[in-house]
Structure formats: structure tokens, C-alpha cells
Specification:
Blueprint lengths: L1 H29 L11 H10 L2 H5 L12 E4 L2 E4 L16 H10 L14 H4 L4 H12 L12 E2 L6 H11 L13 H11 L5 H4 L17 E3 L4 E3 L15 H10 L1 E2 L2 E2 L3 H8 L6 H12 L16 H14 L1 H4 L6 E2 L5 E3 L6 H4 L4 H9 L1 E2 L11 E2 L8 H13 L10 H12 L2
Antiparallel strand pairs: 1-2, 2-3, 4-5, 6-7, 8-9, 10-11
Helix pairs in contact: 1-7, 2-6, 4-6, 8-12, 10-12, 13-17, 17-18
Length: about 425
């Protein structure tokens, strides 16, 4: 009886929220910006597709570019990306500029159905009509690929139109980005790029149990479900905040994925390779201005437990055996013959001392490989150790790193390593 009552209450809540969501959608439809009369630039569309890394989600591993089918894990099941090529049966063939605008601005497919929130509609709604039309024109100019849509594998009721409408009522408000008069043109351009086309919050937002966030400017950080990585906070300089970085350093890191011993690894390496490396000089400056101006907010950290001497001793031995030759006896790192960093310093590394140990564990297990970009075409890499170190060894090594050379980030145990492996195994 209790389950039945709970189910009825949930349905009533969804129906109410969905009604409000429908009203919000209708308001957004009535406010939709008409198509621009100006000529559409395919070069502009290509640039936006690169900055937005459309191919990153809309290309399945081993599949045709932009043909969709890539599985995207969520807390509620798996969503499969759609075919963006102009195939008439399975892609965007026949989609008008208005159809495409509604998909970006309102999160509504050509058939009228609401798109699953894995499509970053809270970000794409910010795009200007001119940018949406340019992106549509470029996609229509790509080679068509026949690739039938894969049905989402979402648990009930999360894939239903009722649930999606309810989610939208709670967390989505359509609207093109409006410049903030309190800031200059560079800041506003950087905000538009970061919140809209580059959709940084799609990874760096702090999401609640329903997958909702505080909007496109939410960069509090959170777990990337199904990947085992954490997107660290962009507000905390001790996590991934760049408020204290020189502007030139950040611009080179966004372009090259490697600067002054800082390397883009894991999912962020893919972002640099597929997105920020494509930014032109003016947009690199703009994004740097915006990200460096984000307000500083410290991430809450649990009180570190007393270190286990045996675990620390074991971790120190593993470090000497497997890590010290590259990263130095005291974690000082190593430079190559040119004087550039070959192997980054671990002493003082933010990745080592982040509140969550997830990224450190994932890096040790899977290896570290920065993106090969024009500005840094031959990065050094680190081999994976998942087949060499047992969970107890990984925990000991990570604990040694997090508690050495002035670090006070706290220890982890084998249970935490196994938990992180389980989180990544769903991908």
C-alpha cells in the first residue's frame, strides 16, 4: 500500500510539474527568435561545431563522424546521441533552420517530442539565432550517413515525456544569452562561449539527485557518472579554479592542453583536443577573462583521518619502484633536454590534493595522456597501472601522494578504490 501511495504521489508531482513545464515551453515558443535575414556563414558554423565539440558526443566509437549512437551514461540509465548528418531517414535531412532552432533553444525535436536532458539544452538555449542558423547550415553541408537512432535505455519513468517535462519545469528556462552590462565585451563573450557553445557546465555543474543544476553558470563540479572521473570545481583555486593563473598561461593551456607542468588529462584532454584548441585568439582571450573572473568558493573537504603508518610505508615503496624515476624522489618532476616539463611535479599538484581522490586513482589506473595539439604535438605519457597494482596497492600509493611533501589531503583505502572502479564500470 505504501508503495502504491508513493507511486501515485510521484505521478501527481510529475503531472503538476509537467503542466508548468508545458506552459514554460509554450512561452518559449512564442518568444522564439525568427531566422536571420543575413547570409549564413558555413565557416562560422564549422567554428561553432568545433568549439562545441559536437562530434565528441555525436560520434560513436568506431562509427561515422556525427552519425550519433554514442552511449552517454546518466544516473537514470543510458542515453544514445542522435545522428546530426543530413540523412533523410535517420538524421537531420529535411530539418529546417526553424526545426533546428527549436531543438537548441527549446529542446524539442522535429516531431514535437521533448529531448532528454542529456542534450545540454540549458546551454544550447543561450545560442543566438545567427549562431544556430550557421551551425544548422554547416551540418546540412556534411556527408549524410544512414544510422538509425538507438532507443534510450532509461529506467521508468525517467525517459517518459511526463518526467522530462517535469524536469524542465524545475531546471530549464529557455532564453538567449543576454550580455551583462556590469562587465565588458571580452567578459561577456567569454561568458557566452563558456555557458553556451562550449557548455562547460555540462560537466562542471554541481548536480542534485534529479540531475538538476543551478544553470549554465554553475561550475561547482561533480562526479561524471559512468566515467569514474570528477569534474573539479572551477570556483576553487585548490581544485580547478584558474583565478590566480596568469592570463597567458590559461590561454596556452586551453589551446595546447599543456603549459608549465599543467596538463589536461582524462575527459578534459578530450575537451581540449575536441573543443578549446579550436578557439581563435580573440575567443581564447575572452574565455580566459571570464574563467579567471569566476568568484572563488572553497569546496568542502572532510577532516583527514589519522594516517596509517603501514599504508604510508607501503605506498612510499611503490612510489620508489614505479614513479620516482619520472616524477622525482621528492615529487619534483622532471624536465626534458629543452627545459620543458616532461613529467609534471606531484609535489603541490592540485590533482593529487583534490577533495575527491577519484581523478588521482583513475589516472594511476588508466595512465595519463595529454592531448596531441599543434602547440604540443608530442606530449609525454604515463602508462596504466591497473594491471600491475592491486586495490590495496593503489590505495597505499594514492595515500602516500596525498600525505607527502606538505600535502594534507587525507588517505584512502581499498574500499574507496573498488567503489570508484564500480562507478566507472557502468560506462
Amino acid at each position: 500500500m505504501k508503495r502504491l501511495l508513493f507511486g501515485l504521489a510521484l505521478l501527481a508531482l510529475l503531472a503538476t510539474a509537467a503542466a508548468f513545464g508545458l506552459l514554460a515551453w509554450q512561452r518559449g515558443l512564442s518568444d522564439a527568435t525568427p531566422a536571420s535575414a543575413a547570409p549564413v556563414s558555413l565557416a562560422r558554423g564549422a567554428y561553432l561545431a568545433a568549439v562545441g565539440n559536437c562530434a565528441g558526443c555525436h560520434t560513436a566509437r568506431g562509427g561515422e563522424r556525427l552519425a550519433g549512437g554514442r552511449p552517454i551514461p546518466t544516473p537514470f540509465g543510458t542515453v544514445f546521441s542522435s545522428n546530426l548528418t543530413p540523412d533523410a531517414q535517420t538524421g537531420l535531412g529535411g530539418w529546417s533552420a526553424n526545426d533546428f532552432w527549436r531543438a537548441l533553444h527549446l529542446g524539442q525535436g522535429r516531431d514535437g517530442r521533448l529531448l532528454a536532458p542529456a542534450h545540454p539544452v540549458t546551454n544550447t538555449t543561450l545560442l543566438t539565432r545567427e549562431d544556430a542558423d550557421a551551425l544548422h547550415a554547416w551540418l546540412q553541408a556534411q556527408p549524410p550517413v544512414q544510422a538509425p537512432r538507438r532507443v534510450h535505455e532509461l529506467r521508468w519513468p525517467f525517459g517518459s515525456q511526463l518526467a522530462i517535462a517535469a524536469w524542465r519545469a524545475l531546471y530549464f528556462k529557455p532564453g538567449v544569452y543576454q550580455p551583462d552590462p556590469a562587465h565588458d565585451a571580452a567578459w561577456n563573450r567569454g561568458a557566452y562561449l563558456s555557458q553556451g557553445p562550449a557548455h562547460c557546465s555540462a560537466c562542471h555543474a554541481g548536480r542534485n539527485a534529479l540531475g538538476g543544476d543551478a544553470g549554465a553558470a554553475d561550475f561547482r563540479g561533480g562526479l561524471l557518472v559512468g566515467l569514474g572521473w570528477v569534474a573539479p570545481s572551477l570556483h576553487d583555486p585548490a581544485e580547478a579554479g584558474v583565478q590566480r593563473w596568469p592570463a597567458d598561461t590559461l590561454q596556452r593551456w586551453l589551446r595546447d592542453g599543456h603549459v608549465d607542468g599543467h596538463a589536461a588529462l582524462g575527459p578534459m584532454g578530450e575537451v581540449v583536443l575536441g573543443s578549446t584548441a579550436a578557439l581563435n585568439d580573440a575567443d581564447l582571450v575572452a574565455m580566459s577573462v571570464y574563467l579567471r573572473a569566476l568568484p572563488e568558493q572553497v569546496v568542502a573537504r572532510p577532516e583527514p583521518v589519522d594516517p596509517d603508518p603501514r599504508r604510508r610505508e607501503r605506498g612510499a615503496g611503490i612510489y620508489r619502484e614505479h614513479c620516482a624515476a619520472c616524477h622525482g624522489e621528492q615529487g619534483e618532476g622532471r624536465r626534458d633536454a629543452s627545459g620543458a616539463w616532461a613529467y609534471p611535479a606531484l609535489a603541490g599538484s592540485r590533482l593529487v590534493t583534490q577533495a575527491s581522490s577519484a581523478n588521482l586513482i583513475r589516472l594511476i589506473e588508466r595512465g595519463g595522456f595529454a592531448p596531441a595539439t599543434p602547440g604540443h604535438p608530442r606530449p609525454y605519457g604515463m602508462p596504466p597501472f591497473a594491471g600491475v597494482l592491486r586495490p590495496e596497492d593503489l590505495a597505499a600509493l594514492a595515500s602516500h601522494l596525498r600525505q607527502s611533501w606538505g600535502h594534507h589531503a587525507g588517505e584512502i583505502d581499498a574500499v574507496e578504490v573498488l567503489r570508484l572502479r564500480t562507478a566507472a564500470a557502468t560506462h
